[in-house]
Amino acid sequence: MTDAQDTASDTALRTTGGAPSDDDVPPRGLPIPLLEPREGIPPVVASEDALAQVVAAFAAGRGPVAVDAERASGYRYGQRAYLVQLRREGAGTALIDPVGCPDLSGLGEALDGTEWILHAATQDLPCLRDIGMLPSRLFDTELAGRLAGFPRVGLGAMVESVLGFALEKGHSAVDWSTRPLPDPWLRYAALDVELLVDLRDELEKELDRQGKLEWALQEFDAIASAPPAPPRKDPWRRTSGMHKVRRRRQMAVVRELWTTRDRIAQRRDVSPGKVLSDAAIVEAALALPPNAGALSALPGFGQRMGRRQLEQWQAAVDRAKALPEAELPQPGQQVAGPPPPRAWADKDPAAAARLSAARTAVSALAEQLHLPQENLMTPDTVRRVCWEPPQPTEDAVEAALSGYGARPWQVHLVAPLLVQALRANA
What we know:
The protein is of the alpha/beta class. It has 20 helices and eight strands.
């Protein structure tokens, strides 16, 4: 029996309260359904007094702390947390309502210096930061799975392949802003942190066995120390279907409708897509309707939309149509860095040859190491080095990679490959 199977067996005893009967045990090799948290569903913490008790309990706990957060993407405006789940040895599991307890900085301070275990940490850290929680050390089980070469790295897939349990994932996309939260949702949320510590321990062993543990630790440190992402420039340009919009006047309509929609969504605290779809925005931009009647005939502006709403959207279209030429958006967003690779052969054939050689070498090494190519080195970094190459020496290439944010383990492995590509295609 492997270490992972040992852990799974031990956890089965703790979770079910004893050895399962023959009827409960699935055929050998099939995952065991994990149906209940081992101490049951904890009460939701929604008051300052209850929060103080949780802070004291987790401060007195032992070992790393498993952390997860649930958002209401697709339902509410923004990416705020609507439930925070934690588990730590000696403290058990806690479910905290950030609506009732919007400031969790005291909990964050109590856990200062403790390793946090998260799955896909970069997804949850922004909403946790907003409520005062930010780790100084972390272990990302999804990223660990990628580095270890697992083909499927979702939490359910990882728990199943490493620990032998099946998590119920039916509530991942529900509206977590709902109050009160139904018991089945709370059970799901508690189970999400139930086995994170066990998963972390097994992945650490596997990374160590493969000689990749130091790589993972460098990656985790980079995530924990990364500053908040700056706001996107011209976020309206990311409207789905934007590639159909060619003329500057049409782009101005997209911008005006997107901005109007965003303002309404923020005021109503609903997802922008529930106010007006991206497809409707693009349809209006392409058609440039002359009045609300013409607008109502377009997909997305149909029978369910009242006259007042139609006039509101038509006013946005009219504002864009009235803009002077000088205030219209430019066809393409100015992006720092090299042009799209498809244009390299015409613009700089030598750079295109460098990129082709570098990509081939990096891809081969990633396959040899059993990890995704983008985790070995980001494609953007490879492109930048090949487009404006440093001197084709080990020191110069290493300095360039470090300047683009590559971690030491990545620099050590990839720099020699890029030196060869640069020298062969100078």
